[in-house]
Amino acid sequence: MTTSLVHPADLEPTSVSRGLYASRRRYTRVDAAVLLSLLLCLLMLIPAKLIVPNMTDLGRPALIIAVLMSAWWVLVRFNPRLPMVGPQPLRWVVLLYVLWATVSYAVGFLRGLTTMEANSADRAMLYVAAFAGVVLVVADGLPNWDRFRLVFQVFVWCAGFMALVGLLQFVLWTDVTVYLMVPGLEPKGFVPGFEVRGAGVRVASTTLHYIEFSAVMAMALPFAIHFARFAAERKVRQRFVLVALLIAAAIPTTVSRTGFLAAGLVLLVMVPVWNWRMRYNMAVTAVGLLAALMFLKPGLINTVIGLFAGAADDPSVTSRTDRYDMVQSYFVARPWLGRGIGTWVSPQYQYLDNQWFAQALTGGLVGVAALATLHLAAIALAIVALRRAERPEDRHLCAALISTQLIAIAVGFMFDSLSFTTFATLLPLMIGATGAVWRFTHPRRAVRTSTARWFAA
User: Fold this and answer.
1) Among the listed ranges 6-10, 48-52, 95-99, which one has the minimum average pLDDT value?
2) Which residues pair with 197 in a beta bridge?
């Protein structure tokens, strides 16, 4: 089916002529959508191990752009003519998160830190700046549905490339990321290898871990399905169908419970907004993928079933549960504000493999509440936008955004998700997108079209 890119209540002047104003803002070739698309390409196409020389893992080119986005947003706020008119709830939620991070940073240094902890705390604060920058630029910077779709189409295509790399690794047992070296960047830190689990081999594609790869693929899946269903042209829809199949097929290659759980959450949210024909098509597609998987890797199905049936005796599960007493002993010592943001350094202490535990130990109950507020606020904004939306396409996008937040909450119990920069940079993109769709569906035109103050005056 074909849909119009013009909002039913608004005139999009760019649909008349390329040079006209878009949503009452000056036309520009490099806007927030272009920078966000560049960030996604650098983040997902370049292996996570490659950084700018003599920098930490925050030296990934994508993260440098993310930090600069925070500076860009702040500079816009200082100009009395450029900030957007109208409310944006995410600004207040992000402000609370940044205030918590600042207080937690101070608490850590008041406690007294080792050199490793202090360096890690500095790194965590730089990441908070990158996180806030991406959220706010997405929420305030995307002017209309057209530019919004551009960013997420780039996201889906990049996810398709990651899926293809993962599938090649899975089939060939060869690390094809060695052919993705970028001049001027150098590998640093942990390089994921191949881990045999049952009848399959776990792959990480361009990410740093198998679980991270599975979570990213699950997060991209609902958007790939969206464009396979709602893209304007038949040929484009067919291409996105192929990309969606690649992404869905890549999830089992990680041989990870997290990936299957995340995919299940996607279905839990998306099935209610699908019509019966869509549900039938998805069921047939799932059966076809399962049959192909059984043909290519007969023992992989038994391995996946064993992941859940034998979870109680799985060392990867028991090693996590064995840490509960240790986590409790550290938590009760500083239950409210924690030890300080970024100060739980895995090489110095133990690996937690649980983002919520890490948040509790470093930020206390206040830190857990701050992170939970981000997720819950994003879900609430997406639900409000879904209820306001009149077109099935917009409702489907809002449901996809809700699923990403449920994924983020769930996988936080499976691994320390904010320590892995690919997933941790996609998360603020999804949070900011909920603020954007909330604005696009707002009943007030001045809020919906993101008018700059110079025009309103």
Assistant:
1) 6-10
2) 200
**In the block, residue with structure tokens 């299940």:** 264
What pTM, to 2 d.p., does this model score? 0.91
For tokens 């816009």, name the residue. Answer: 76
Residue 87 banded pLDDT, cuts 50, 70, 90: confident
Q: Scan for tokens 């990936």, then name that residue.
A: 259
pLDDT at res. 410: 96
Tokens in use for 209? 């871990």
Max avg pLDDT among 280-289, 346-355, 407-416: 407-416
Write 315-322 long-range contacts (CB < 8 A, 24+).
Answer: 319/353, 320/353, 320/354
- Average per-residue pLDDT for the chain: 87
Closest CA to 164 of 150, 153, 180: 180
Does the pLDDT value for residue 10 go beyond 60? no
Task: Give the alpha-carbon dihedral of 15, 17, 18, 21, to 10 degrees.
Answer: -80
Distance CA 146, CA 399 (A): 18
Domain boundaries, the chain: 40-456
Task: Identify the bridge partners of residue 225 per DSSP, sorted by sequence position.
Answer: none
For the chain, the distance separating the N- and C-terminal CA atoms, rounded to the nearest angstrom, is 41
